[in-house]
Amino acid sequence: MALLSLAALDGPVASARDAMSASFQDLAARLTDLTTSPWILVTSGAVTLGALAALAFADRTAVKYRAVHVAHQAFYVFASVALASASVNVVKRLIGRARPSLFDNVGDFHFQFGGWAYDYASFPSGHATTSGAVFAALALLFPRMGPVFASVAIFFAYARVAVGAHYPSDISTGLFYGAWIAVLVAVIFARYRLLFAIPEKGLPARR
Predict the structure, then answer these.
(1) Which positions ≥6 away from 34 have C-beta within 8 Å?
(2) What pLDDT digit, counting tens, does each position of 111-123 carry?
């Protein structure tokens, strides 16, 4: 998908962005703020600590079991987003792809490898990576809601194209990278018999 977007979509989409209304771009900017990693990390971290506090003060076995389960779930989301966000911010700056804001000057296929500058940190998208990580994690935790989480992830991620921060190939790559990190963390959890089990085929499954 990234290669297809790079070949067929990135240039035309960047050229057409000026035709988008200012109100639509403003709405897209507000939507993308919902998939920034800090607030997700704070929320999942707070739920983890709250569950551990409940575990410390619980006097019934059922309550303790539930608190442990919630703590594991929240920490799984925290770990997935933290690893995805931290790693992609290094990778994107090392790759150094120019953002769409520089499209008129350098085009859609210009790189400054290892530049470590904001304007050259387009590929992959950090917001899309966070979106892929958090919604893939939720889909693994609640498989029946998987299609809904996938749709929401795509919706929020591609809003970054509307605000002119990324090309479609940046978004598709970020989504898959974040989802891959969530699966990797689930495999690690499964090895410690936490939350997931590893079937003979397919993705990690809820225990």
Answers:
(1) 156
(2) 999 878 889 999 9
